[in-house]
User: Which sequence fits this backbone?
């Protein structure tokens, strides 16, 4: 009898009306579970992620960054596969752009270190505590991860170019996709990099609230980069290295015409714009 009484009391508590909301206590809990997390909560999640990244050993950052560079190379490969199997029509670029998301899905869902993600994650802890120690930690992480990412894409492009792993038509498709870089001037590279950096930072900001929709968020944001013709320092380095190793670009063009403007653009878009604005909207609440 005691057991039944306890069960009945529990049901009464669940169905009792909340004095302020006019709904049951159980429904109040349902509302809380279904509500989007507040902006300060999202900020804190991303900030803690940045703190954890800055505390990682250099060796861990390096190999995670190399893995990300290798994984991101599959964006170009996937685009080339779609390009070689689709008819030459006006809508083909819209479908080919879907391949661009493949490498990002591998990197983000695999928790690998990607430089453009860190333009927001490690900046938020620095904005909260603008000390020389934190500034050094940010620079250390950026230097290691960027060098590791570029090493990974260089290794991948050399593997694709100098080994018989790819069919000739697939290699030709990768080069065709890569040639879009040759159409952009220095200032265009920079402006396109700002848009790309902003979108990647927005993706990182959205993921904590996405829960089971992470796949869709990553795909959507990176697909926009592809079809918008925006430039990304890591995925674009795969294109640039392919052009260089196949004799269509010189090494100095990779650095001067691609890396410098795109790196500046990505950092402006991800850090100076998105990260600073994200911090500004919560700084009075944290």
Assistant:
């Amino acid at each position: 009898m005691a057991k039944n009484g306890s069960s009945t009391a529990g049901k009464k508590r669940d169905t009792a009306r909340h004095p302020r909301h006019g709904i049951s206590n159980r429904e109040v809990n349902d509302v809380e579970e279904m509500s989007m997390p507040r902006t300060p909560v999202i900020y804190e999640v991303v900030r803690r992620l940045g703190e954890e990244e800055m505390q990682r050993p250099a060796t861990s950052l390096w190999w995670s960054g190399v893995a990300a560079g290798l994984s991101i190379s599959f964006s170009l490969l996937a685009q080339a596969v779609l390009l070689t199997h689709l008819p030459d029509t006006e809508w083909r670029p819209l479908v080919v752009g879907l391949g661009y998301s493949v490498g990002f899905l591998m990197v983000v869902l695999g928790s690998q270190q990607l430089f453009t993600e860190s333009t927001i994650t490690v900046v938020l802890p620095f904005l909260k505590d603008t000390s020389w120690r934190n500034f050094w930690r940010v620079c250390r992480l950026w230097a290691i991860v960027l060098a590791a990412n570029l090493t990974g894409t260089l290794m991948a492009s050399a593997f694709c170019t100098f080994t018989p792993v790819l069919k000739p038509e697939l290699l030709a498709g990768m080069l065709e996709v890569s040639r879009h870089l040759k159409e952009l001037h220095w200032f265009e590279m920079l402006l396109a990099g700002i848009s790309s950096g902003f979108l990647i930072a927005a993706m990182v900001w959205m993921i904590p609230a996405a829960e089971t929709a992470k796949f869709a968020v990553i795909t959507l944001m990176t697909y926009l980069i592809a079809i918008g013709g925006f430039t990304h320092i890591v995925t674009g380095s795969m294109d640039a290295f392919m052009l260089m190793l196949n004799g269509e670009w010189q090494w100095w063009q990779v650095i001067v015409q691609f890396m410098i403007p795109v790196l500046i653009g990505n950092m402006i878009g991800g850090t100076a714009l998105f990260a600073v604005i994200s911090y500004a909207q919560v700084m009075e609440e944290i």
